[in-house]
Amino acid sequence: MTTHSRYRFEQFSASRRIGALVPAPDGESLLFVSDISGQFNLWQVSSQGGWPRQLTLFTEEAVRQAVFNRDGSRIAFIADHHGDEKYQVYLMDAVGGWPERITDRPDAQYQVACFSPCGRYVAFSGNATRPQDVDIYIYDLETKKTRQVTPGGGLRYAFSFSPDGTRLLAVQFYGNADQDLLLIDVASGEIRNLTAHPGREAKYVPGPWLKDGSGFYFLTNDGREFQAIAFYDLAAHRWSYAVTADWDIEGCALNGDQRLMAYTVNEAGRSVLHVIERESGRRLDLPALPVGVIMDLKFAPQDSRNRLFLQMASYKEATTIYVLDLEAGALTRVTESMLGNIPEEVFVAPELIYIDSFDGLRIPAWLYRPHGIEPEMKVPALLSIHGGPESQEQPAYNYGGFYQYLLSQGIAILAPNIRGSTGFGIDYQKRIYRDWGGAELKDIEACNRYLRSLDWIDGDRIGIWGGSFGGFATLSAATRLPDLWACACDFCGPANLVTFVQSVPPHWKPMMKAWVGDAEEDREFLMERSPITYVDQLKCPLMVVQGAMDPRVVKAESDQMVERLRARGREVEYLVFEDEGHGFTKRHNQLKGYGAMADFLVRHLVR
User: Fold this and answer.
1) What pTM was computed for the model?
2) pLDDT of 37-75, one tens digit each?
3) What angle, rounded to 10 degrees, do the helices at 439-453 and 469-480 form?
4) Do residues 586 and 38 make contact, with C-beta atoms less than 8 angstroms apart?
5) Angle (nearest 5°) at CA 174 between 170 and 179
């Protein structure tokens, strides 16, 4: 096995980030967000493929999400400044022109939802009235006035207008594992809770309406361990399950004539696509798709050709948009995300394994084994902890080629879904609640022990890396399990749980007590679980990367960790990006940041 690949980090990272898939109503083109220009901007491309047309020209703002109006002539989108997540709402003509910003509250965060069927109104949500609440607003394109629809109190997010435009389907958000569906009368503001479930928690995610307005589909896990598709009958004032599976169902889309329904099943992280006849349930035969992750799926509402738009990724291809023609059985790549000119055989496919933790819980994990390992050879390894923590490690082209570059340098990667991860049932997900730095740290210890049990892993060269919650987990492991690591790399992770829960965005604060803990009532407990408490125990080299504009994990979290270490003469590398928030929006920063972290890990693990 060669120690170093002949392919450079710049080639592995030469991928374009693509997201926010939005088909035009007629299906002949689609919108997406990408950093092709070096910053997240809005682009449009033909459904047949070809070079896309850039619609926005931002350099300091990053476009995040977009919607078409009913006839495809207008677009609404949100964008923030330097990653500060203070999203503002913009309107523009689909044919081009400079976007018009219709909100002007740099202290508020908005989320655009939808146009009304008539096209005159745009519904969006935001915390402009009270920082701790999220309310629903409607903007009138003719009068250019905004009206607050909900009265305040709690977190309410608009989703879609009913087909006749008289009602809004919305979500009342209590926490990541608990929501309700609301039906709001647009004229009167009357709110009807459709899914009140006192005494228990349940997820509810809105889906598509039937064209006659008689009801709508949605995703829920109410009474179940896994999420499934349900239908709400408005006339009967009740709902029932329509499609269930033994894993979480993610995404639900109806084709133009609503004869077909498409959805994906998350099988331990891999996405499996299903298309059925909506009324009979008969499954359609589909062509083989790349094995990986389907992030989004949509039909175009006025497309008569039954084309399914898919946003997909795999271990060897960054997120890319495909069009699946269900009548022809043909899959067409519409966008191109891989530009590094690296042969497919260089990339490493992960293997799904399970690791027994201290209490018998089986931890799913993706194990990447570098190519070319010979008998008697031992290689270094990196334990990668995903963020969230209510998120999931999946077999995609993770972190812009970061994994695959490290693999090319001879570093094995173990990427587990420790307790608290989504995709493995609600009980598994909620095991992280009010237990940050608790049982999941023992899962991490079990993962380290598993790596040491492999005869091809060098147990003295195991590093740990993670971002956001994964950064917290990295700091916890490095300070509380100090003898297990050759190095540690933290990307925007909290160091002090007390200051963390005090500094999150205002509309997050009502959820923090149940999720992490209360800064006053649980102060002793939170400090006992905070990496900053154990900073003197750190033994391995540490790197910390942070965005100065981060609203979720503020820069002070990283500052206090670095300052304490440097005051004690400990080795720590600190890289701050003044024009970034929670992660990277600008491509040059992404390259610099991941490149620096990769270099740090290679220096300390490959020798």
Assistant:
1) 0.95
2) 999 999 999 999 999 999 999 999 999 999 999 999 999
3) 70
4) yes
5) 50
